[in-house]
Write a structure and sequence with these properties.
This protein has helices spanning about 10-25, 65-80, 105-110, 135-140, 155-170, 175-185, 225, 235-245, 255-260, 270-275, 325-340, 355-360, and strands spanning about 30-40, 40-50, 60-65, 205, 210-215, 230, 275, 280-285, 290-300, 300-310, 315-320, 365-370, 370-375, 380-385, 395-400, 405, 415-420, 425-430, 435-440. By secondary structure, it is an alpha+beta fold.
């Protein structure tokens, strides 16, 4: 039996509307528009505006600033998946002569390349890109502020270099490649490098008076790959579905999962904030929920895309003001409202299609020293190893087809799990990266490194 998609409950819709109404009013935004995605489709859309009449809908463009970086990262990972580069390649291998070529592709994606946050003066977001026609104009005389690979330091010039990398390997302008390889396949026909009507105007709201000032809208030129794009809640909702599930026409589910995996060492501030950065994707731990996505801002505009992958809920929030509501908080709240009010209904449990008899023999209770673990086989073909106490090292494992398993996460990610058998074929112990797991704590009948005291277990004499 299947259950058809249902719209959100009236109470949930009202809570969402209330949240964006508070954000628009307290943040003093000329307009704010939002959407919620669940189950792979948009299930709610709302807007608030200071203008009389019809509010903005899902087709009105806003500038999305640094959410552009996620699109650029998708293009770079397509190059990697095609074998045209390795993430460990220094930029110099593909784009020589920049003066910043020692940073690797992965480091640029994760903002660990040591580069400055901004280009040299004048303020690049409010001046024409024609003032910075070359990469050297974007990087300046001293592009590095930190040792390469040592710390997270957000860098707009770093993504400018990634845009140049895409252009070099594709032999076409960044925006042309983006449209051909990402926007058109995903049906994002309202996402563009320049505004296409209907679109919102960008405003600065005076901090101490309820008056406004129009903001300029500059073509970023060389820095387009870091923040040029305009988009809509409709298009970004579809992009959120892609970032959660993948689309083989663009990137596989495995690669978008890689994008969402933290790739940057967290500093003390990031640790305290519960934030990290993947490959073109921000990662945030908020109120016990793991959220991924990206925020963006340019003069006159704020944008946020937040995905709760485990909850299968995503939110898009756009506003046309230079500063105002904290859209990352609003986006997280929209995800929380839906996830808490209408929690995801799990798929029905189903047994395996086929039984792997040698693997089934390994299921059950094991001990690493005196620490109890349970090895379970699941219908998705994976195995999970979890501590019986509920706390400690745990991982899922993928079968390699030769009787061994590879860890997929946590401490055991990439480590090999295998059964070590006796001459008669019975299992002596499990070997996990040299750790020995036995059926009983320090099983005297198993090959335990260091041996087991022959007098066995005892109490206090």
């Amino acid at each position: 039996m299947t259950t058809p998609h249902e719209e959100l409950l009236p109470g949930t819709r009202r809570a969402l509307t209330h949240r964006i109404a508070v954000a628009q009013a307290e943040g003093r935004a000329p307009s704010l528009v939002a959407a919620v995605v669940r189950g792979g489709r948009t299930v709610w859309h709302g807007s608030r505006t200071s203008v009389q009449g019809h509010g903005p809908d899902e087709n009105v463009q806003y500038r999305i600033g640094s959410i552009t970086k996620t699109f650029t990262a998708v293009l770079v990972l397509r190059l990697r998946d095609e074998g045209l580069l390795d993430l460990g390649d220094p930029l110099e291998k593909h784009v020589p002569g920049t003066g910043a070529g020692e940073a690797t592709v992965a480091e640029l994606l994760a903002h660990t390349g040591g580069l400055a946050a901004e280009s040299p003066a004048p303020w690049w977001e409010r001046t024409p890109g024609t003032l910075r026609p070359e990469l050297s104009d974007v990087l300046g005389e001293q592009p590095f502020l930190h040792p390469v690979g040592r710390r997270f330091h957000y860098s707009n010039p770093g993504y400018t270099l990634l845009g140049a990398l895409v252009e070099k390997l594709r032999g076409a302008p960044w925006e042309e490649v983006l449209r051909r390889e990402v926007l058109e396949p995903l049906g994002l026909d309202r996402t563009s490098g320049h505004p296409v009507a209907p679109h919102a105007g960008g405003w600065a709201v005076h901090p101490w008076a309820d008056v406004m000032l129009p903001e300029p809208s500059e073509d970023l030129g060389r820095m387009a790959a870091a923040g040029q794009l305009w988009s809509t809640t409709g298009d970004l909702a579809r992009f959120a579905v892609f970032l959660a599930n993948g689309d083989d026409r663009v990137l596989s589910a495995e690669t978008v999962r890689e994008m969402r995996t933290p790739a940057a060492p967290a500093g003390t501030a990031e640790l305290a904030d519960g934030s990290s950065y993947g490959l073109g994707v921000q990662v945030q731990h908020r109120d016990g929920r793991l959220l991924v996505g990206h925020s963006g801002s340019l003069p006159g505009f704020l944008a946020n895309l937040t995905i709760g992958v485990a909850d299968d809920v995503a939110a898009v929030v756009l506003a046309n003001c230079t500063s105002g509501p904290l859209l990352s908080v609003v986006g997280a709240d929209l995800v929380r409202i839906v996830a808490d009010a209408e929690p995801r209904i799990p798929e029905p449990w189903r047994p395996m299609h086929e039984v792997d008899v040698p693997a089934l023999e390994l299921a059950g209770q094991w001990y690493w020293g005196t620490n109890g673990f349970a090895l379970r086989l699941t219908a998705d073909g994976l195995a999970s190893l979890e501590p019986l106490s509920g706390a400690g090292r745990r991982s899922r494992f993928r079968a390699n087809g030769d009787g061994t398993w590879t860890g997929l996460e946590g401490y055991f990610q990439g480590e090999l799990l295998k059964a070590v058998r006796r001459p008669d074929g019975s299992v002596d112990h499990l070997d996990l990266g040299s750790f020995v797991f036995t059926r009983q704590p320090y099983d005297e009948g198993a090959s335990v490194p260091g041996g087991v005291d022959p007098e066995g277990w005892r109490g206090i004499g």
